Protein backbone atom coordinates (compact mmCIF):
# COMPACT_ATOMS: atom_id res chain seq x y z
CA UNK A 1 0.00 0.00 0.00
CA UNK A 2 2.99 2.27 0.42
CA UNK A 3 3.45 2.06 -3.34
CA UNK A 4 0.04 3.71 -3.70
CA UNK A 5 1.26 6.74 -1.78
CA UNK A 6 -0.04 5.87 1.67
CA UNK A 7 2.16 6.46 4.68
CA UNK A 8 3.78 3.52 6.51
CA UNK A 9 1.69 4.02 9.68
CA UNK A 10 -1.55 3.70 7.73
CA UNK A 11 -0.20 0.60 6.01
CA UNK A 12 0.80 -1.02 9.33
CA UNK A 13 -2.61 -0.23 10.85
CA UNK A 14 -4.42 -1.77 7.88
CA UNK A 15 -2.18 -4.84 8.01
CA UNK A 16 -2.84 -5.30 11.74
CA UNK A 17 -6.59 -5.00 11.12
CA UNK A 18 -6.41 -7.67 8.40
CA UNK A 19 -4.35 -10.01 10.59
CA UNK A 20 -6.89 -9.79 13.42
CA UNK A 21 -9.74 -10.37 10.98
CA UNK A 22 -8.03 -13.47 9.63
CA UNK A 23 -7.51 -14.73 13.19
CA UNK A 24 -11.20 -14.35 13.98
CA UNK A 25 -12.19 -16.15 10.78
CA UNK A 26 -9.81 -19.01 11.53
CA UNK A 27 -11.11 -19.35 15.07
CA UNK A 28 -14.71 -19.17 13.90
CA UNK A 29 -14.56 -21.49 10.94
CA UNK A 30 -11.86 -23.97 11.77
CA UNK A 31 -12.04 -24.50 15.51
CA UNK A 32 -15.69 -23.87 16.38
CA UNK A 33 -17.17 -25.48 13.25
CA UNK A 34 -14.75 -28.40 13.14
CA UNK A 35 -15.41 -29.51 16.70
CA UNK A 36 -19.10 -28.50 16.66
CA UNK A 37 -18.66 -26.34 19.73
CA UNK A 38 -21.75 -24.74 21.23
CA UNK A 39 -22.79 -22.73 24.25
CA UNK A 40 -23.03 -25.87 26.35
CA UNK A 41 -19.51 -26.95 25.36
CA UNK A 42 -18.20 -23.85 27.13
CA UNK A 43 -20.34 -24.45 30.23
CA UNK A 44 -23.15 -22.03 29.40
CA UNK A 45 -26.81 -22.83 29.10
CA UNK A 46 -28.45 -22.31 25.73
CA UNK A 47 -29.55 -18.67 25.39
CA UNK A 48 -33.28 -18.02 25.41
CA UNK A 49 -35.23 -15.45 23.40
CA UNK A 50 -35.18 -13.12 26.42
CA UNK A 51 -31.38 -13.42 26.61
CA UNK A 52 -31.00 -12.47 22.94
CA UNK A 53 -33.34 -9.50 23.37
CA UNK A 54 -31.32 -8.27 26.34
CA UNK A 55 -28.06 -8.77 24.45
CA UNK A 56 -29.16 -6.94 21.29
CA UNK A 57 -29.04 -3.33 22.60
CA UNK A 58 -25.63 -3.88 24.18
CA UNK A 59 -24.31 -5.47 21.00
CA UNK A 60 -25.51 -2.48 18.97
CA UNK A 61 -23.98 0.00 21.42
CA UNK A 62 -20.61 -1.75 21.48
CA UNK A 63 -20.55 -2.01 17.68
CA UNK A 64 -21.33 1.70 17.35
CA UNK A 65 -18.55 2.54 19.80
CA UNK A 66 -16.14 0.29 17.90
CA UNK A 67 -17.05 1.95 14.60
CA UNK A 68 -16.62 5.39 16.17
CA UNK A 69 -13.16 4.47 17.49
CA UNK A 70 -12.19 2.99 14.12
CA UNK A 71 -13.42 6.13 12.32
CA UNK A 72 -11.53 8.42 14.71
CA UNK A 73 -8.37 6.34 14.31
CA UNK A 74 -8.51 6.44 10.51
CA UNK A 75 -9.29 10.17 10.62
CA UNK A 76 -6.31 10.76 12.91
CA UNK A 77 -3.99 8.70 10.73
CA UNK A 78 -5.21 10.46 7.59
CA UNK A 79 -4.87 13.99 8.97
CA UNK A 80 -1.55 13.51 10.74
CA UNK A 81 0.39 11.21 8.45
CA UNK A 82 -1.00 11.97 5.00
CA UNK A 83 -1.85 15.67 5.03
CA UNK A 84 0.39 16.71 7.92
CA UNK A 85 -0.39 17.86 11.42
CA UNK A 86 -3.20 20.40 11.70
CA UNK A 87 -1.13 22.27 14.27
CA UNK A 88 1.87 22.40 11.94
CA UNK A 89 -0.23 23.48 8.96
CA UNK A 90 -1.81 26.28 11.02
CA UNK A 91 1.58 27.67 12.00
CA UNK A 92 2.97 27.32 8.49
CA UNK A 93 0.09 29.37 7.10
CA UNK A 94 0.70 32.08 9.70
CA UNK A 95 4.39 32.12 8.88
CA UNK A 96 5.46 31.27 12.42
CA UNK A 97 8.31 28.95 13.18
CA UNK A 98 7.25 25.92 15.24
CA UNK A 99 10.61 25.64 17.04
Q: Describe it for me?
A:
The structure is a single chain. With 99 residues, this protein is mostly helical. The protein has 2 domains: 1-45; 47-99. It is built from 3 helices and no strands. It has helices at residues 8-34, 49-82, 86-94. The two termini are 33 Å apart.
Rg to the nearest angstrom?
22 Å
What's the pLDDT, averaged over the residues? 75
What's the end-to-end separation, in Å?
33 Å
Q: Specify the helix fraction band.
A: over 70%
Give a short synopsis of this structure:
This protein is mainly alpha-helical and 99 residues long. 71% of the residues lie in helices and 0% in strands.
Please specify the SSE layout and strand pairing.
Elements: H1 8-34, H2 49-82, H3 86-94
Keywords:
71% helix; 3 helices; single chain
